[in-house]
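seq:
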Amino acid sequence: MMKKDLKLIVQQKYGEIAKQSVLMNSQSSCCCGTSACCGEVDYSLFSEDYSGREGYNPEADLGLGCGLPTEFAEIRKGDSVLDLGSGAGNDCFVARALTGETGKITGLDFTDAMLEKARLNNEKMGFTNVEFVKGDIENMPLPDSTFDVVISNCVLNLVPDKQKAFSQIFRVLKHGGHFCISDVVLTGALPTGLQEAAEMYAGCVAGAIQKTNYIQIIGQSGFSDIQIRKEKQIVIPDEILANFLSTAELNNFKTSGTGIFSITVTGIKHS
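struct:
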């Protein structure tokens, strides 16, 4: 698929999720537990438990993350923080609890329905130092050297050009600033049926790249002190895989040694 087609797929699917979640009880497992919302893929496969985190707002948690980037982001009082692919605002509100009133939180997303939901959540919470901006991660409408910390949660795997994404992160960070990103990566090759499935792309799997390539791109973008702070393997249920693979393909995939992992990685802009 062309890059523009991939982006349209993501916008459409995550727009559906945002609209569906309005109709769901915020305490349910996720809007993605319903086929009407997410089709053949449960997008909450990778999600982490945020309950008990200061600043957590269940209405802003759509179960779409694959880690807890704020856990390792070392966000301090007064920091300026950017959240890429901010969705309904979940990580922004947790970050706001860490920066306090003197900090500044910016959420960037390119899906109108998500931005609308995030702004509504923010209005309910009454924060004046949290804002949500529409924009593409590959070409952020944000000035150079603005943020102390950049975070993101299971989003960069959806960006077709990851080199551009990390170059943009480097650009908008202040000198000495750092990022903490949770994302999905691979070891080994995905079967063609998964690679070509739009549902699996929007579900964070088909857009994932090799872990070694991912770390290499970060280094090529100018970052140093790159560390994987947390890693866990993701097992996709057979009933989901069966939507895209034949029985033989599914068995081959399960014995191929291919791994799908959620990682939380950090890096610093020294130069």
